[in-house]
Specification:
By secondary structure, this protein is an alpha+beta fold. The protein has two domains: 101 residues, Serine-tRNA synthetase, tRNA binding domain (Helix Hairpins); 305 residues, Bira Bifunctional Protein, Domain 2 (BirA Bifunctional Protein, domain 2, 2-Layer Sandwich). It is 41% helix and 19% strand. The chain contains twelve helices and 17 strands. An eight-stranded mixed beta sheet has the order 1-10-11-12-15-9-8-4. It has a three-stranded mixed beta sheet with strand order 7-13-14, with no helix packed on it. Strands 2-3 form a two-stranded antiparallel sheet. Strand 11 and strand 12 form a beta hairpin. Helix 2 runs antiparallel to helix 3. The model has no long low-confidence stretch (mean pLDDT 94).
């Protein structure tokens, strides 16, 4: 959500920022300025009429005490009341138009974000590890899982339809192990507070993090008007909605392992086979509530925490800075982590870490108070995957596969697997 005062003060800056995202910046700016002008006109007129009405009330009172005829003054006051009601209605309608326009606009991009229309303009910042030659033709995860009898798409489709998967036995335990390993790493080594959150949230929570109103089609909605969370970012970030946080408490670092639910409305025909793009999946989410002066450093720290997961599992990855055309609606700057999948012979996203600055905080009115108590301002919020559990499972399966179709268990996960070192067909 943008501050109309900032737009009013620096319209050229705002126009240029929207233009970087490929939006019709000049037209949008003109509409906002036109509605803003009408609102300010209505507000000024209301103030003037209210002042006149207050003066009339005083004149009527004095006239009555002197026994004078005040009918004309009372008639003028009544007419003013009618005019004021019309202006109030006009101001409310204009406010709604302005709010709707501001709600539809994405965040302002960080100057570091490269220009570009889509993912082809993203910039690889670094790479850790090299894709390994397995010495045989690697299989994709779904081929491995089905051959082991542990990844069942047919039964899941019978139960729920497309884009659902049923995991069995040691493969189900391996996914559970990944989630537990990540939670332990982030809480014990990285200082995040483990949190159990509702999987259903209200519309206000989805609005606060930017899913509503723009992306409602991507959500699953219940009959009572609540929404299944698309990510734990929604409840974790909204836990500070409407709060004023003491400066000394910042940053707040929260993590949760949850089921996530997405309709994948815009993914028709993409990744239809396998476990990569599901309606229901598990993810370890990282959220930081930070001081504005520290959010850039917190962004780097969060991304490094997600990278640590992949390094511990010995999964080659690269960090990618998203370009203007590929950066999400609420983000000012985003790093994606892409893991190498031998079966697909390509890099695929496994984590996305974003700094939204005060964009979400304005929507949910989350603020901080300075140590001296003299100032209150909006916090900065950050979110990232630490990492997507299902995609980590895919990466482990494809990277650790053996020529006989078995899968080696990465050493950090073996304790969570009862000491098992390999998954093989029964």
């Amino acid at each position: 959500m943008h501050d109309i005062k900032a737009i009013r003060a620096e319209p050229a800056t705002f126009e240029a920022a929207l233009g970087r995202r490929g939006l019709p910046a000049a037209d949008l700016l003109k509409r906002i300025q036109w509605f803003d002008g009408n609102r300010r006109f209505a507000q000024t007129a209301l103030q003037e009429k209210q002042a006149r009405r207050n003066a009339l009330a005083k004149m009527v009172g004095e006239g009555r005490r002197r026994g004078e005829d005040t009918a004309a003054l009372e008639a003028e006051a009544a007419e003013l009341r009618t005019e004021m009601e019309k202006l109030e209605g006009m101001a409310a309608a204009v406010d709604a138009e302005i709010r709707g326009l501001l709600e539809s606009l994405p965040n302002i991009l960080d100057p570091d974000v490269p220009d570009g229309p889509d993912e082809t303009a993203n910039v690889v910042i670094k790479q850790w590890g090299e894709p390994r030659d397995l010495g045989f033709a690697p299989k994709q995860h779904f081929e491995l899982g089905e051959a082991l009898g542990l990844m069942d798409f047919a039964t899941a489709a019978k139960l729920a339809g497309a884009r659902f998967t049923l995991l069995r036995g040691p493969l189900a335990r391996l996914e559970r192990a990944l989630g537990q390993f990540m939670l332990d790493l982030h809480t014990r080594e990285h200082g995040y507070e483990e949190t159990i959150v509702p999987l259903l949230v209200n519309a206000a929570a989805c609005y606060g993090t930017g899913q509503l109103p723009k992306f409602e089609e991507d959500l699953f909605k219940t009959t009572d008007g609540r929404y299944l969370i698309p990510t734990a970012e929604v409840p974790l970030t909204n836990s500070v909605a409407g709060e004023i946080i003491a400066e000394k408490r910042l940053p707040l670092r929260l993590t949760a392992l949850t089921e996530c639910f997405r309709s994948e409305a815009g993914a028709a025909g993409r990744d239809t086979r396998g476990y990569l793009r599901q309606h229901q999946f598990r993810k370890v989410e990282l959220v930081s509530i930070a001081h504005p002066d520290a959010s850039d450093a917190e962004h780097e720290r969060m991304t490094a925490c997600a990278e640590r997961v992949l390094e511990a599992l010995n999964l080659p990855y690269r960090r990618v800075l998203l370009c203007a055309g590929d950066t999400g609606f609420g983000a000012a700057k985003t790093f994606d982590l892409e893991v190498w999948l031998p079966g697909q012979q390509m890099w695929r996203e496994i984590s996305s870490c974003s700094n939204t600055r005060d964009f979400q905080a304005r929507r949910m009115n989350a603020r901080w108070r300075s140590a001296d108590g003299k100032s209150v301002a909006h916090v900065h919020t950050l979110n990232g995957s630490g990492v997507a559990v299902g995609r980590a499972l895919i990466a482990v399966m494809e990277t650790c596969q053996q020529a006989d179709g078995s899968i080696l268990v990465p050493p950090p996960l073996s304790p969570y697997m009862g000491g098992a070192e390999r998954i093989s067909a029964a």
